[in-house]
Amino acid sequence: SSKLLEVIDALKRRRVQIACLQETRWKGHRAEERNGYKLLYSGSDGAKNGVGFLVSIELHKNVIEVIRHND
């Protein structure tokens, strides 16, 4: 989405390598790569209770395991 791309652009400008996101509306549990960041999130259907992390690809290489929990 365009809002996510705006957040990623702001992180790049400020040289932030990891960010936590709250009250997302994304459904399900996924991981995807966007513009040099890996998005890891967990959300429930139809609610604003989702959470996620944006991790730079450089740092993501050091992630061993992701354990997702619901809200």
Strand tally is 4
* Class computed from helices, strands and strand pairing: alpha+beta
What is the number of helical segments per DSSP (H or I, 4+ residues)?
Answer: 2
Question: Major β-sheet, in short?
Answer: 4 strands, antiparallel
Lateral arrangement of strands in the main beta sheet: 1-4-3-2
Q: List low-pLDDT spans.
A: none
Q: Could you tell me the mean pLDDT?
A: 88
Rounded to the nearest angstrom, the radius of gyration is 12 Å
Helix and strand run: HEEEEH
State the helical fraction. Answer: 10-25%
| Separation, N- and C-terminal Cα atoms | 23 Å
Q: What overall form do the CA principal axes indicate?
A: globular
Q: How big a fraction of the residues is strand?
A: 35-45%
Q: Topology of this protein?
A:
Blueprint: H1 2-13, E1 18-24, E2 28-34, E3 37-43, E4 50-56, H2 57-60
Antiparallel strand pairs: 1-4, 2-3, 3-4
Descriptors:
single chain, 71 residues, alpha+beta, 4-stranded antiparallel beta sheet, 2 helices, 4 strands
What does this structure look like?
It is a single chain. With 71 residues, this protein is an alpha+beta fold. It has 2 helices and 4 strands, in the order H-E-E-E-E-H. It has helices spanning 2-13, 57-60, and strands at 18-24, 28-34, 37-43, 50-56. Strands 1-4-3-2 form a 4-stranded antiparallel β-sheet. A hairpin with a 2-residue loop joins strand 2 (28-34) and strand 3 (37-43). The longest helix has 12 residues, at 2-13. The mean pLDDT is 88.
